[in-house]
Design goal:
about 40% helix, 3 domains, three-stranded mixed sheet, GMP Synthetase, Chain A, domain 3, three-stranded antiparallel sheet, alpha+beta, about 20% strand, Ribosomal Protein S8, Chain: A, domain 1, about 270 residues, 9 strands
Length: about 270
């Protein structure tokens, strides 16, 4: 009888199965149904699932119930150490590292080599990434221009992918940028539905009092901004004041804002 076991890792799933079936891990005959992954800030997290076929019988126990048994003496039974069993399981799930490396909190230490990529190839890679997610996304388009990858995503769950106040958008934009920039040397413009466009329009309205103040006084600063709004405001103000010093600063509580000044009055 086949039975499935689910846990955070393949090893934990095997341990759960061996405990329930009353055997050692190396006696399990199983196949991996799903490899675990840490996910992208909780978006794509997956648990490990194995399907146990049967428990392998030890050769020394095949004649356990036989009516005729020769007496055995001075037989030393050596059990394989648990460490070896763990190593065997780890060897089977080595490919999990490939999946987890993309979502790892710590960067993988590799020699930095910039590769070339076209829009269709990058689009295919992003589609493959989202095929493992739980979101209903039916449109993913990529265009590359002026060393920037323009990525457009839309679908029934676009609003869920953006998240409350854009926190999922910020997380996804951050992880995609770090991947695309490190591997291909490209910058990123991510648009999910019309979220980016709406944020840009909102920033333009919010920056009008700041712009008027700069025109009158020669300097100014924005209120504290969060997430993608900082970058949008920075780009807009630099376009508006190409001959002034426009930069991001941090307040004492760690929040970010933008200052506009003359170059000799930083």
């Amino acid at each position: 009888m086949l039975k499935k076991y689910e846990a955070a890792t393949i090893l934990e799933a095997c341990e759960k199965a061996s405990k329930e079936l009353g055997c050692n891990i190396n006696e399990l005959d199983y196949k991996i149904i799903q490899y675990p992954s840490k996910g992208l800030f909780g978006l794509f997290a997956k648990s490990a699932i194995i399907e146990v076929k049967e428990v392998k019988q030890d050769k020394n126990e095949e004649n356990k119930d036989s009516h005729i048994q020769e007496p055995q003496t001075n037989i030393e039974v050596k059990e394989e150490p648990q460490e070896k069993e763990i190593e065997e399981i780890k060897a089977k799930i080595e490919t999990q590292e490939v999946v987890d490396s993309f979502f790892s909190e710590e960067p993988v230490k590799k020699e930095k080599t910039i590769q070339t990529v076209d829009a269709k190839s990058l689009e295919k890679q992003i589609k493959n990434l989202f095929s493992h997610s739980c979101f209903d996304i039916d449109t993913i388009e990529v265009d590359i221009e002026d060393n920037t990858a323009y990525v457009f995503i839309d679908g029934e769950d676009a609003a869920l992918l953006i998240g409350k106040e854009g926190y999922r958008y910020n997380a996804l934009s951050y992880i995609l940028f770090n991947w695309i920039n490190a591997k291909y040397g490209l910058y990123l413009k991510l648009e999910i539905a019309q979220f980016l466009a709406s944020q840009q329009e909102m920033i333009k309205h919010q920056m009008q009092p700041v712009i008027e103040h700069v025109k009158q006084e020669g300097w100014g600063k924005t209120k504290e901004l969060n997430g993608i709004l900082v970058q949008i405001a920075l780009e807009y103000l630099r376009e508006t004041f190409p001959n002034k010093y426009v930069a991001i600063k941090k307040s004492q509580n760690g929040e970010r804002y933008i200052v506009i000044n003359d170059f000799n009055k930083r």
